[in-house]
Backbone:
């Protein structure tokens, strides 16, 4: 029973941490009160879940070796792979939306579209390329383990 509870808390911590990062990024971009409240709520949720995990491990340290770490890492890598993939997809959709806006391009002398440099920001480029190694490593591990089952 303790093993299932600890495993559930570990996965809840992963989800809460991803939501926390999402709220930080959204608040930094928009300065929205809703995102700030989400940031504060996930901060206290992360602290509560981490404290619960620590207390469970301190109560019974022998529970850690008995966890199914292969399954935990497999599911965590899948969650990371999907989360980072959704971030990349969101950036791609934002760029495609800007490309369709006539204010962001003009036609050259030869009749070809020439896109304005404001279609993609340096922040989006940095996020897109910074997340590539995490996405590839987590995805490779997840897909290899998924195909070997």
Residues:
């Amino acid at each position: 029973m303790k093993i299932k509870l600890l495993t559930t808390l570990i996965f809840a911590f992963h989800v809460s941490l991803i939501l926390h990062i999402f709220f930080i990024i959204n608040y930094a971009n928009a300065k929205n009160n809703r995102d700030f409240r989400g940031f504060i709520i996930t901060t206290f949720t992360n602290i509560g879940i981490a404290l619960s995990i620590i207390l469970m491990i301190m109560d019974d340290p022998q529970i850690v070796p008995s966890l199914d770490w292969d399954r935990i890492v497999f599911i965590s890598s899948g969650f990371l792979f999907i989360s980072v993939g959704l971030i990349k997809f969101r950036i791609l959709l934002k760029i495609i939306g800007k490309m369709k806006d006539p204010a962001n391009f003009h036609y050259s002398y030869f009749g070809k579209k020439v896109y304005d440099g404001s279609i993609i920001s340096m922040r989006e480029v940095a996020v897109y390329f910074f997340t590539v190694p995490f996405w590839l490593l987590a995805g490779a591990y997840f897909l290899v383990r998924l195909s070997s089952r």
Observations:
- The chain has a mean pLDDT of 86.
- The first helix runs from residue 2 to 30.
- The beta strands are 105-107, 113-115.
- Residues 68-149 form one domain.
